Amino acid sequence: MVIRKREVLPMYSWLFRHLPGPLWVRVVLVVALAVVLVGALFQWVFPAIAPHLPFDGGTVDSAPSP
Amino acid sequence: MSRARSRGAKAVGLLGEVMLTLAALVALFLVWQLWWTDVISQRGQDQILGELDQGWGALDTQSIAPPQAGDPPVIDTPEDGVVWGTLWVPDFPRERIPLAEGVDRERVLNVKGAGHYPQTALPGEVGNFSVAGHRNTYGRPFYDIASLRKGSVLVVETEKTFYIYEVTASEVVEPSDVGVIAPDPDDPSAEPSRRLLTLTACHPMYSDRERYIVHAELTSWTKREDGIPKELVGTSAAPADGGA
Lengths: 66, 244
Prior knowledge:
The complex is a heterodimer.
Chain A: H1 10-18, H2 23-49
Chain B: H1 2-56, E1 83-88, E2 96-101, H2 105-109, E3 114-116, E4 127-132, E5 153-157, E6 161-173, E7 195-203, E8 210-223
């Protein structure tokens, strides 16, 4: 009877398995990818979607922005 | 059967993973909005204030400027987006806020500080000098706007002049209520006769459903070359203990 180890995060496990190199290289790669992803989110994605969210208007306007 | 079950379990596992990822993205967005925009904007605003002081020349912090008689001088209409003054609010922990022309979020409010509604009066002018600012995020210059009370002091500083205003009232209105920045907010149809100042910020906190409004009226003005107005004694402009 073979008991397979349950994969908690199948998507990320798949990614981790397919990264090249020994363990430490893959750990470094994952960290680098995460840094790039967060950087892109902070720099471009979040500033682009923030104006569409109703959190922080400060002006009075006859035609309020959405 | 066991195969179908394991496939189902796999799908549930994947769904859970996607939801965890989305939750992490939302959490990251909150970190960005509530913390990172403050870090970036406050750094930018500190730099703007430093550059203003360099351009204007040092302030004589040892002298108390006497109030001037007569009508206050009015600056030329500034160009859109230009930082042309500062707003001192001794009641705020961060007492000094850059004042720029315009209320566009991307070009002014998110990056420069508080913004002057271009169609409203300039400081010292008869009418209603109106200023918008963020209450949360992007440096949140008006974070403590609800702490202002009748009699609280607001000082507008330009290259040559300090304009001293005193808070007269505050209110919460709908975002569409442009009457609050009318030349005379008490009677928008009347000919303005007073020199007023109005601040607008979002309300309640972390929402833009309503607006928090503070009205003030000019009480006096001083020349910047004479030193600081007595209303700013005790602020970072001139510590009450004379420095140190």
